[in-house]
Each structure stands twice: as structure tokens, then as C-alpha cells.
Specification:
three-stranded antiparallel β-sheet; 11 strands; 34% helix; alpha+beta
């Protein structure tokens, strides 16, 4: 079996750029400039009003792009200038935090840098809340550690949030993975109703981010509203003991993805409730949709 660093230095089905590989090669090499370039391609659709952008309803469909090639196809359809040149707001891909993470992962992996998207909760959007969010972990060979980066947070958002931290190197505790949130709610007295987004809060939502983070650690970085296996039902919190035990185990493995790497791969591959295969149910479109494998 490949080592974790070898595994995360190569593409999975979602981040493989295929015909767009040369376009990624032209993006900046250094992380600050690279994140700024990605921010010039994507605008988070929920943040659009804060930038003074009135989002046409049809542009909500941008975020249905599930793979890196699909994202870049849409980016180039909107504006075909080189990827290192920022677009006007309405010519940017209207995506979510997951899309920023997928693009950053794709660029880093294309350069042989180990990178993995992480699904969980940001603590820095609303005081006292843990809001659904995606970031990226990437390996620094120079420092010998994983660095957590939020590629979505530009200067405007940092100012709006009154942030006092570096989004390129998130301090501990600023982002909670799905597994960390599950453990806190299950055994540490955290209030599960503080975890979620919009009108969706509770332990059922935390459960979803455990499964999504496990899939992302197995290089299946799916849409935030994709449902499969145990995520084909929303809102239910009446789970059998064996399901709760499985989630406890998955959460623990996701918190130690390198030390527990063989077990992390095995629990994903051997569990029909977590493994993505063939199709998923898109909760926004209401349709079964094929996913790459």
C-alpha cells in the first residue's frame, strides 16, 4: 500500500485535470499567489451579496460541477483568459467552499505536493457556531508537517470576519473536521445544534460531515449535497447501535489519517454506507447522478 504522502500526492477521480493539466501548470507556484489566483476564478455564491453582486438564479447551477475538469470548463466558458488572471465578479465560477478546496488540491497534486480536502466546520464565520466548511491540508516538506489552508478567505472576507489569523496556515481549533465535531458532540458535551449551516443543524448534519470527510480522505471530494449510503436520508437521528459505533470508529480514524492510514482506507472501501460507487443522489437537483471512479 502507498504511504499517505504518496497517496495524497496523486489525483483521485475528482481532482484529475485530464486535458486541463497544462492550464494548472501556469498558475503561481507560491501558496499566497496561488490562493489569490483561485479566488480570482471562483466567488462563493453565499458571499456574492456582500461583494455587491446580484446573483442571477441560473448561476446557482455552477456549483453542480462535481469534478475539476467540469469546474474549469465552466470557468473558461465564462471567461477564457488565462487562469492566473482574475475575472470580474459575474464572470467567476459561482461555487462553494468545497470548490475552492478541490481546485487547490488539484493544483498541488499536479505538482506532486500531498494535499487532501477536509470536510468539517469553520469556527470563524459566526461566533459560537460551527459552520459547514471545507479547507485543504497540504504537506510542507520543508517544515515536515501538514498545513491547513482556507483558500476561500480573501482580503475582503478576512476584513468582514475581523479575522486575526492566517488563512494560509490555520491555527489549531479554527477548523474542526467532521470527525472532531462528532467526537465533541458524542463524548465532550458539545451542543450538536451549534453545528450545521443555514436552517440545517444537529448531530445528523455532523454525521454527514464524518462520512464526507472520510470520502474526501479517500479522494472522493463530492458535492456538499451529494447523498449516498447512509447519507440517503437526512434529518434522522435514530440510528442503530452498530451505526453509531461505526461512526465513532470512522471519526477516530479521520482524526489520525496518517497513523491509521490502512484502517482508514479499509473502513471506506469495505463499508457500503460510506463507499461511493456508481451514482449518488443530488439533494439539490433531486436526481441520481453518475460519479467518476
Amino acid at each position: 500500500m502507498a504511504t499517505p504522502l504518496d497517496y495524497y500526492a496523486t489525483h483521485g477521480p475528482i481532482t484529475d485535470p485530464h486535458a486541463h493539466a497544462a492550464l494548472l501548470a501556469a498558475l503561481p507556484r507560491e501558496l499566497p499567489e496561488l490562493c489569490r489566483a483561485i479566488q480570482g476564478l471562483i466567488l462563493h455564491r453565499a458571499w456574492a451579496p456582500a461583494y455587491g453582486v446580484e446573483l442571477p438564479p441560473e448561476r446557482l447551477g455552477d456549483a453542480q460541477a462535481r469534478t475539476l475538469p467540469a469546474i474549469l470548463d465552466r470557468v473558461l466558458e465564462l471567461n477564457d483568459r488565462p487562469l492566473n488572471r482574475a475575472r470580474p465578479f459575474l464572470q467567476r465560477f459561482m461555487g462553494t467552499c468545497r470548490d475552492f478546496a478541490v481546485v487547490l488540491c488539484a493544483v498541488l497534486r499536479s505538482r506532486g505536493v500531498p494535499a487532501r480536502a477536509r470536510c468539517g466546520f469553520g469556527t470563524y464565520f459566526t461566533p459560537g457556531k460551527y459552520e459547514d466548511h471545507w479547507v485543504v491540508e497540504h504537506w510542507s516538506a520543508r517544515e515536515g508537517r501538514w498545513i491547513w489552508t482556507d483558500p476561500q478567505l480573501d482580503v475582503f472576507q478576512l476584513d468582514a470576519l475581523k479575522a486575526d489569523f492566517d488563512p494560509l496556515d490555520l491555527p489549531p481549533g479554527h477548523f474542526w473536521t467532521g470527525g472532531r465535531a462528532w467526537q465533541a458532540c458524542r463524548t465532550e458535551g458539545a451542543d450538536a445544534k451549534q453545528f450545521g449551516i443555514f436552517d440545517m443543524w444537529g448531530l445528523w448534519f455532523v454525521r454527514g460531515n464524518v462520512v464526507r470527510d472520510l470520502a474526501a480522505l479517500n479522494k472522493m471530494e463530492l458535492l456538499p449535497w451529494d447523498g449516498w449510503g447512509m447519507l440517503e436520508e437526512l434529518g434522522n437521528e435514530e440510528w442503530p447501535d452498530d451505526v453509531v459505533g461505526w461512526l465513532d470508529r470512522a471519526a477516530a480514524l479521520c482524526e489520525e489519517p496518517d497513523a491509521a492510514f490502512p484502517a482508514l482506507r479499509a473502513i471506506y472501501e469495505e463499508s457500503p454506507g460510506s463507499r461511493v460507487s456508481g451514482t449518488v443522489f443530488n439533494w439539490q437537483t433531486g436526481a441520481q447522478e453518475e460519479v467518476p471512479s
